Batch of 2 targets.
Target 1
Amino acid sequence: MEVLELIKKAIFEGKTSLNEAESKQVLHHYGVPVVEEFVVTDSEKAVAQAEKVGFPVVLKGLGARLTHKTERGLVRLNLKDAQEVHQAAAQIAEAAGNDLEGFIVQPMLSGTREFVAGLFRDDQFGPVVMFGLGGILTEALDDVVFRIAPLDEAHANAMMDELRAAPLLGTFRGEKPVHRDQMVRVLMGLSRLGMEHSKIREIDVNPLLVGRDGDVTAVDALVVLGAGTAKQMMRPPVDPKAIYHLFHPRSIAFVGASAAFTKWGYVLFTNVAAGKYEGNMYLVNPKGGQIAGRPVFKSVTDIPAPVDLAVVSVPVGKVMELMPQFKEKGVRSVLLVTSGFSETGEEGRLLEQKLAEEARASGILILGPNTMGICNPHVNLFCTYQHVRPTPGATTLISQSGNLGTQLLAFAESEGIGIRAFAGSGNEAMITIEDYLDGIEDDDLTNTLVLYVESIKNGRRFFDSARRIARKKPVIMLKGGRTREGNRAAASHTGAMASNIAVFEAACRQAGIVLGKTSMELLDLSAAFSSLPLPAGNRVAVMTLGGGWGVVTADLCIEYGLTVPPLPPEIIEKIDKILPPYWSRSNPVDLVAEMDLSVPMTLSEVLMAWEGCDALLHLGILGRQFFVRRMIESAFTVDPNCDHQFLEKIPDYLAEFNSKYTEHVVRLMEKYGKPVLGVSLLADGDSHTVTNVEGTPFKGIAFPAPERAVSALAAMYSYKRWLDMEGI
Amino acid sequence: MEVLELIKKAIFEGKTSLNEAESKQVLHHYGVPVVEEFVVTDSEKAVAQAEKVGFPVVLKGLGARLTHKTERGLVRLNLKDAQEVHQAAAQIAEAAGNDLEGFIVQPMLSGTREFVAGLFRDDQFGPVVMFGLGGILTEALDDVVFRIAPLDEAHANAMMDELRAAPLLGTFRGEKPVHRDQMVRVLMGLSRLGMEHSKIREIDVNPLLVGRDGDVTAVDALVVLGAGTAKQMMRPPVDPKAIYHLFHPRSIAFVGASAAFTKWGYVLFTNVAAGKYEGNMYLVNPKGGQIAGRPVFKSVTDIPAPVDLAVVSVPVGKVMELMPQFKEKGVRSVLLVTSGFSETGEEGRLLEQKLAEEARASGILILGPNTMGICNPHVNLFCTYQHVRPTPGATTLISQSGNLGTQLLAFAESEGIGIRAFAGSGNEAMITIEDYLDGIEDDDLTNTLVLYVESIKNGRRFFDSARRIARKKPVIMLKGGRTREGNRAAASHTGAMASNIAVFEAACRQAGIVLGKTSMELLDLSAAFSSLPLPAGNRVAVMTLGGGWGVVTADLCIEYGLTVPPLPPEIIEKIDKILPPYWSRSNPVDLVAEMDLSVPMTLSEVLMAWEGCDALLHLGILGRQFFVRRMIESAFTVDPNCDHQFLEKIPDYLAEFNSKYTEHVVRLMEKYGKPVLGVSLLADGDSHTVTNVEGTPFKGIAFPAPERAVSALAAMYSYKRWLDMEGI
């Protein structure tokens, strides 16, 4: 095949890149529109060719070693006659010296819109396609987007839309919109080159010109040869069943059990026991005796019953010698909290590696070392250092920081966000983030996966797994180490390797991962994603008790890329029958301090039934308890004549309304297949973000502030668009 | 004076703009470097002039009615010889027709960096200077910044730094950095023109070229004549003393008092009474009788003692007739909660206007109508519909949405943020946001002012007042209606007028106003600004219990424009003596799960004493109560042998440590003059954001999540830079 031959020949000749003409030949072969051009050997032939092409022309020096041609004066634009071509050829020849292999003659193309496109090999993700704004502002504006190859049409199109300078691709100053199909061909051609030719290390198309007629043309191109420097760690993948067993042990031995209040060997056991774990629990310590009124076995092998999971907190020097005992006992999984392994340096790294090999050989799965623990509320298993016990639910949380993970669990507990399972992944000696992804893919109890990730072992595997899973359920992630400083901190924390952050984030978005910006946002996203149907579009109806909240919420919607469409006459007509005559007749719909509790019930259905809306936000309907309770207290304090009996009933009445209303909107979600997000504007902190409603897959959601609801809804809409792009 | 003559002459001749040559003459007179150019009358003279200037040249058609010259083919660049000039002149003459007054010959300047600058008159703020990226990307990238005139050097410089394309102004592709002094001259020249010539409506300098040598040249310019369309409302300013009296009444009459639980006439009175207001309270209702065991007067005039403040909740039709009684009684202020005025349409607007005139004539100050009320915790005055009673403090909150305002107060109450005073400003019949600004300027009890604003009556007054006050104390603001949709909602809510949002926000930033993005952020900012010293710079030391939190916090710092500098050897040496040998030796400093409570005490002082840091963030030191309490509970539940006596003491011990630690960091703030922000990672909600420490102007601050601390610190740093820019 022609392209392969060209590459082989160049490599055989010891060249590190193809020359410009060869580069364009390769691109042309892969469907990239390239400028018409003619290779000539000398100045006379250049003139003759220029006359055929028609003035003005471009003349370039040709040679595999000729790089940075513009800077070296080897590109001469807009040559208007034979004399100018002659002169230019002489100057190029002088500047290029011995590296000159000939000249390229091209027509001078008209068009003011310059882009760049390219391909390179990332250490973690392999071939990556790049697209960006070109011309003189390239470096100043740094407006580029990336996609992991292979690229499909939908993602190639999305690359164009994601540029800040995307307006340039539309009708622009009298120039026609870009022919998007041509641009797609360029990007997909680059992608295919990256996938099919491992000896192409890099391709640089610059400029990629969009002409006045919208035609796309690669005006200059360079194909660099050589292999990439892959730094993916190749680990044997963990069997998803083994991960399932880790979270569903029938019995647990606490090896390194202790009676001291702050020791891991005490804290983990007391958490599991107090959490009402129903399997058998055994304490193991060579010293024997009793702890917490229970017998202590000197070795796991002394335990007179099977042991599924060993929770190990012995000192680092004692871990290895346990392995034969575990093997003998038939222990399937080890939760290794002990620290002092790879996080401390080379010696620890080697010990950890040896341990993992030993475990693999014995058919044992180790979580850790250096983990904060796991939990699975569905079997009442709470085995973390921090005593946190969230309710059973559908969100699985995997965190490369145990501290951050357990703290999030504590918030999840207090906000009513149900948890399927949690693991602090520790040093990941055997189970990596990639393994968890694969392990959770077919777990029916998980409907939302939340990750805190500082680094990944194998980018390509991560990307493939995440994308496969994201097609089935949302994957929400916070990346720690998005900045140089954060990465430095991560390196000292989990030994994270520096990676190209822009490529990493592009890979995540391409894989459909929902990227959170802050730790707390992860919880909001998991609450929303695990409780609500996805919106089909971005049109939001807002219903508010209090005009100001409607204003700030409308602002937030727009700023997050949602829309707040005006109400059509037929909806206004319906609402006219519900609200007093002076209502605003616009979206947001202000309840104008209407205290009649039936109003929000009726109004919410009118808005949900409106075909012009994809989601409903309601503000201030819930969460009035704080003020009302205070008002009643005040009356009791200062008004001897107040109606005690009546006032005392109000809080219960309001609580009952809240339940009814929440159930009502959940039913509406089922009926109309649109999400409803509440904003409670709570000031008393005694309500949960998530409220369960019996007999429905959906839940009631009420955030304390509008920005949290809007941000979550925007993320859901963005995920929906990704699913559409993937054809799901 | 020459410029004035030019303008007068043009206006006399009925022209709406100056021609290009005149425009540049005006700019030149005001210090703007303009391209050397020569006006000639015909083609022959153009050629002769071009030969003097030296080829290549630019030839342009000249004429006051010739606009959009490039699009009409009236600008011909890069003409290389006499023949090209001839040809160009002929084509220009044909395209311009009768509007042609002559030609301009200019040298063809080299340089690839194009900007635009200009002046226009905003309805609210008057003359505004504009600066932006020019060239073909202008419209596609919309990279422009604004400043209200008059402009000083510091702000002119800041305009350059604020462009996204600011890198273009530095060394760029072998071209020299822009001569900033020249650019400052351009911007200040435009500003002076705007201030000195009210007949200049608009100036457009495009392109403003930055040459290879960094020189700035106005290549084309247009001065448009005419007056602006000012839409500022001119209201007589309210005497600050009158506003003081409004918040400090010695006695209150509730006019429209009611015994019905949900009526304003009951709710406001019971709130004030239950809040332990110490002045005299009188109930007024024509029906007389008794309410809440108190006598009801039939009219204020029946009250046998002076009345300072009348709180009025009678129906809209009954308000006007009260005014003579108030005047007779010597009532100073009226809190008018009644609605049905300007927010309902033209009729209400006229009534409101008449009421204000009447009040003004009677020397009475009206707050409202349509207000949610006021509070002043310093005199136990809590007169809002929502029964909220924050602690006395230094933050004054003025809100154009009563609902949003009182909800924020409730959060302030629960987070321990002290409040100086609050007002829901209602329809602002008499007291506008501008009046509150002036009223609070010299209020010693206010150290931080927080505003929720949907619209202002007089932009120029608002700008001047805000800037004057921001030099003394921080002004924090959320603008409702930042988007078209938000503005639409605001219009139906408070009758906000659409304004140019970009100009409004630029004016706020220029005035030193700290702009919040969400309602909740206002509270965080007010907590931080009212409790901490300002940071001198942006270098942050981070101390964390838990590596992951350090990573995400470092990321956040960078993303918010702060830095996390590496530790110098002398600091590392000091910390070596405090932390175990395996500590990370980097910033963030990870306490590596060190449980010894003396460690954070010592470490925080080492970091505060470090000259390389301007602020300290500590994470996870406070807020461990939740987990520890749970651990103790677990031990009690499952361990019959646990040391009850010892465990029971732990929560108190921890609470004591928290107090000590908070006092310790507050003392460090006093000693080193740097802010300390805590992140408690609290999950139990029983701690406050703000903790008072006796005998110091500063307070302990602990946010539940790092993003809130980092965002607040970044805002403080940004305010500090503004103060520096203002020379304070």
Target 2
Amino acid sequence: MNEKGLLIVLSGPSGCGKGTMIKEIQKQGDYVVSVSATTRAPREGEIDKVHYHFISREAFQQMIAEDALLEYASYCDNYYGTPRQKVDELRAQGKNVILEIEVQGAFQIKERCEDAILIFTIPPSVDELRRRLHKRGTETEEVIEKRIARSLEELPLAKKYDYIILNDALEDAVDDFLAVIRAEHLRSANVKLDF
Amino acid sequence: MNEKGLLIVLSGPSGCGKGTMIKEIQKQGDYVVSVSATTRAPREGEIDKVHYHFISREAFQQMIAEDALLEYASYCDNYYGTPRQKVDELRAQGKNVILEIEVQGAFQIKERCEDAILIFTIPPSVDELRRRLHKRGTETEEVIEKRIARSLEELPLAKKYDYIILNDALEDAVDDFLAVIRAEHLRSANVKLDF
């Protein structure tokens, strides 16, 4: 009698606050963030099954062959992907699952799961994006400018998402997200008519 | 620079509280309820341009010929319909327009305005619908049972709407409605990307 949980894909420029948004969202409802699988080695402090499912190259290729990934990509000679089974299990339990992934992965998901909800989050301006990336203080000036250039390239793809949320004030962005989820639960395909 | 207003169609069984919902919704935001045109004579207390645009049969047929109606139907030898121009004007001003219309009219609208949002509201149960119709006290027992039979026939058509809202507690139904509208404003087609 559980209503099936939603599959929500969240993308957006690096530094526009997706991580902070997701933390806030999780405080306000029953959302599970999907853990990706990767073939790269764990970095210091990274825990298996928490930050990533760290698996071997053979295991990853096996998953590709078995169509066990909702999306995957290779980056710097390593694979990254979203295992399908866990997502399906959680949704069957009525849990809403959030994937924080890149644009290309998002489009792969939409092809495989028509009912996935694609949300693109944008910063209020390029200057604000630059400010946030500087504030984070984890990247050099050069890397920051590269990230910004890439964000501007990807921005037109936001129009291929279902929703676009401006992340200016965090609280408003979170309320927008929650309104989208509330509305999606009311989509006629998701409502059971039992009389 | 106004964002275009939304066109929202609200349908649902007679007696399930659409009128009360709309009154509540109007208190909480800038919503205009569209006034229908009709060829029937005004009843006592009905005001032209408030309850209906009361127009002649010739004027109505002229509007049909000029494709000036978003939808229309004939009922008991009279025409009823939604004039397109006023709706377009309000939306251009950024106002959200609500149409409270029947199922067939709703589908006509969707054909003409792809971006119309169709919301079907349902009562919690047949017994509750019967109770509400009795409470209203404006119809005979026979009419009430006819209305209920018709509602049950139409209910499967709710699945062809975009959203289904259960009107059990009024406050929740209104919050559902407002969430749908907030989400629809965030649809990528409705968001301007200006950087």
